[in-house]
Amino acid sequence: MTPNQITALRVIMAFAAVALFGRTLWMDVAALGLTVSAISLDALDGYWARRRKLSSPLGAQLDILGDRVVENLFFTFFAVTGLVSLWVPVLFFVRGTLTDFIRGIAALSGRSGFGKESMLESWWGRKLVASRASRGAYASLKCICFCYLGMQLTLMHLPSPFLSEHARNWFAWTAQVLVAATIAFCIVRAVPVLWEGGHYLGALAPASKTVGAAR
Label partner for 6 (CA 20 to 30 A): which of 63, 161, 166, 194? Predict the structure, then answer.
């Protein structure tokens, strides 16, 4: 498989997981497995691209697009089920739109992806966004968060004798802590992109004025 096909596969897995959650116990188990696989493949497509020397600006953008689709899909689904606030997927959507807009402008200058051609030039920006440790931690946190919310959805359908009200409340509180941690990490990783994006926005402004004057 090509790296781009792996990216497409993880998006399909995410949709399949959402379609299975909340139906039966075994479907929930299958959904959890698909969720873990969809998040795990995020690391595989990049590794496979580097190993087979298939890295490209298009592949880097498709990888980011796959991330956006997966995270927005899960958070929107859990917002619809009432497990998270509607503002959670809205926040992720706005954050993704802003950072991807800036990355798109940077790509016009030949800066894209997470490697040497990344738009991030500061050491702290690379550490927070482009390092394997940061990307791995963020992917793991999202995976735990999505799986935990999926298990919470499963528990909601169990009869009361199987789980006390206190246990349900504790489970719900822990889920919200995980969601809050995921949001915080998401925002922190966006800061370097927004901060360094001013350089590319500033470079684009004179060109825009020139085009406008020519018209």
Answer: 194
User: Mind listing the pLDDT tens digit for each residue in 146-189?
Assistant: 989 988 887 776 666 666 777 778 888 999 999 999 999 999 99
Between CA 6 and CA 172 the distance in angstroms is: 33
How far CA 72 is from CA of 22, 53, 95, 131, in Å, comes to: 18, 30, 11, 23
- Distance, in Å, from the CA atom of 141 to the CA atom of 67, rounded to the nearest integer, reads 13
CA-closest candidate to residue 154, choices 17, 19, 18, 28:
28
* Euclidean distance between CA atoms 190 and 93, whole angstroms: 12
Judge whether 135 and 114 are in contact, CB under 8 Å: yes
159: phi then psi, degrees, rounded to nearest 5: -60, 150
Q: How far apart are CA 67 and CA 83, in angstroms?
A: 21
Q: Locate 24 and state its tokens.
A: 């039966």
